[in-house]
Design brief:
Elements: E1 20-22, E2 25-32, E3 37-43, E4 48-53, E5 58-65, E6 68-72, E7 75-79, E8 84-87, E9 93-96, E10 103-110, H1 115-123, H2 130-139, E11 143-144
Amino acid sequence: MKTETAGITRANEGMQGITWSILGQIYVPKTCTEDSFSWHATFPVGTFVPPHIHPDQEEYLYILEGKLDFMLGGADAQATPGDLVRLPRGVPHGIFNKSDQAAKVLFWVSPTRRLYDLFWGIHNMKDQNPADVVALAAEHNIHFLPPPPGA
C-alpha cells in the first residue's frame, strides 16, 4: 500500500486508469492506502451485492444518483442522493438496485485490509459465478451469507 499524496482524482477517472467489472457493476478506485480505500460505483438497474459481512472493516456509501435498497442487519432500508449509509464491521448487509435507473455511489472502507486485492481477483475471473466469488471473498475475509430459506 502506498502512503497518500496530495492531489485530485478527477471525475470519471480512477487511480492509474483502473476500472473494474464487479458482479455487473462498474467500480472505479479513487484512492487506496493501508488506512482507507474509496471507489466510485455504478449499479445498473437490477444489479446487487448479496448480503455479506466485513468482520474487520467499517464501510460507508454516499449516494450520488439514483436509489438503492439495502438489507441492513436484517432490516430493509432505502437510500437516495445525499444519504450516507453506515455499515459497521460485523453487520450483515446487502445492496440492491431495484429502481428503474442506474445508481451512482461513492464507497469507502477503513481500514483497507484485502478488499482492493479482492476486487482485482473478481474482476479478473473469466466468469464471475457465485460459488467462485463467494470462495474468493472468504479468502479475503469478506463473508457472503447463505440465501434465506425458500430463496
